[in-house]
Design a protein that fits this description.
The chain has four helices and no strands. By secondary structure, it is mainly alpha-helical. α2 packs antiparallel against α4.
Length: 82
C-alpha cells in the first residue's frame, strides 16, 4: 500500500506543476470516472479542434456560433451529455 501512496504523491506533484495534467479521484464509481475522463477530452482537445474561431474558444457563453446553433463543439458536447 505504501507503494501506491508514493505513486499517488508523484502524480499529484506532477499535476501541481503542469496545468495540462488533472488528478482524478479513482475511488469513485467507474461510470463517474469514465464520464469525467470523457468530458475532460471533450472540453479540451475536442473543443480546440471543433471551435470555429481561429483564435480559439475564448468565451463559450457569448459565442456567436453557439448562439446561432452553428457551433460544432457545443453540438458534439450536447450529444455526449445526453
Amino acid at each position: 500500500m505504501d507503494y501506491l501512496n508514493e505513486c499517488g504523491e508523484i502524480f499529484r506533484t506532477l499535476a501541481s506543476r503542469h496545468d495540462e495534467m488533472q488528478v482524478i479521484d479513482g475511488t469513485r464509481p467507474i461510470v463517474d470516472i469514465a464520464q469525467e475522463l470523457l468530458m475532460t477530452v471533450v472540453d479540451g482537445p475536442v473543443k480546440d479542434r471543433l471551435c470555429r474561431k481561429p483564435w480559439g474558444c475564448d468565451d463559450p457563453i457569448l459565442c456567436v456560433w453557439r448562439l446561432a446553433d452553428a457551433c460544432d463543439w457545443i453540438t458534439f458536447r450536447r450529444r455526449i451529455e445526453a
